[in-house]
Amino acid sequence: MRQIPIIIDTDPGQDDAVAILTALGSPMLEVIGISVVAGNVPLERTQENARIICEWAGRSDIPVHAGCARPLLRPLVTAEHVHGKTGLDGVALHQPTLPLQSEHAVDFIVRTLRQRDSGSVTLCMLGPLTNLAMAIVKAPDIVARIKDIVLMGGAYFEGGNITPSAEFNIHVDPDAAATVLGCGAPITMLPLDVTHKARGTPARINLLRALPNRAGNLAADILTTLERFDVQRYGVNGAPLHDPTVIAYVLQPALFSGKHVHVAVEQGSELTLGATPVDWWGVTGKAANVYYITEVDADGFFALLAENLSRLP
Ligand code: BDR
Ligand code: CA
Fold it and tell me: Known catalytic residue: 242?
């Protein structure tokens, strides 16, 4: 089997952790490396969390690169109120021995895209888009070499989760998001409009807890903690599961559907900063810049997570 080469760019983050574990459990994916960004918690913690997650998966061979410590133009907004002070609330954390690479994440992204065959590497973006925007500005030649940018971010029909109109990843660094959405590479976007349909109901979490390994239990513990916050907020059965949809899309795109549309990013307004107006009906006449996903087979999605998590220690 020919593996799909991916870079995971992430700000772990509880749902990031489940996404990374799923990717590391899949024989279909070659995780070339992990680039880390500040987001859910500051960089100091997200880079350490990424190394802990690789060790949970028994994958101390994965290079982890620390990237940007804050958004391009604005102060960092974090989400400890969701993910806890460590970013990985709900599970015990250890001091990782997996070393951090000395190469900056932005340089890692640029080097990898230049070294690998053009059109072969998929970028799995699970946090604010700061690292990728920096890479594009630093080395515009990489854009033509990207196979697909699959990103969790944005919201339109569902409204926002950090402000009434904006989703967290885009709100944290709207300037980076605008750079990425305007870059011209193929982009697949997994917004709240789809992740709110991928809910971790108790039955689906139990599917993970029933796995006979540590990774299944870790994922179940993390999702149970996340659930407490989200169920309180959204008042529904099961918390939305965001970042793992990116990995699931790369593994099994048939689980998802959407529409090719033009999406912009609000960078000016204080009130709606980071909002992502979607031209669903083509009223602007602007060419589509993203494949915007709105539907998921949620049971199929959780089955895919369980299948891949089951291969880990
Ligand atoms: C996104 O924001 C973060 O809190 C999650 O990790 C996810 O990437 C959801 O809006
Ligand atoms: Ca994230």
Answer: yes
> 169 alpha carbon to ligand 1 midpoint, in Å?
6
Q: Considering only CA atoms, which of 132, 152, 191, 133 is closest in space to residue 16?
A: 152
> Which domains does the chain carry?
4-309 (3.90.245.10)
Q: Do 64 and 102 touch, CB atoms closer than 8 A?
A: no
In the structure, what pLDDT confidence band is assigned to residue 83 with cuts at 50, 70 and 90?
confident
Contact 273, 311 (CB under 8 A): no
**Whose alpha carbon is nearest atom 4 of ligand 1?**
40
Q: What is the pLDDT of residues 182-222, one digit of tens each?
A: 999 999 999 999 999 999 999 999 999 999 999 999 999 99
State the Cα angle at 96 between 206 and 132, rounded to 5°. Answer: 85
- Cβ of 10 below 6 Å from ligand 1: no
Please give the single-letter amino acid code of residue 201. T
pTM of the model as a whole: 0.97
Which of 36, 152, 161 most suits a substitution to test ligand 1, by most atoms within 8 Å of the C-beta?
Answer: 152
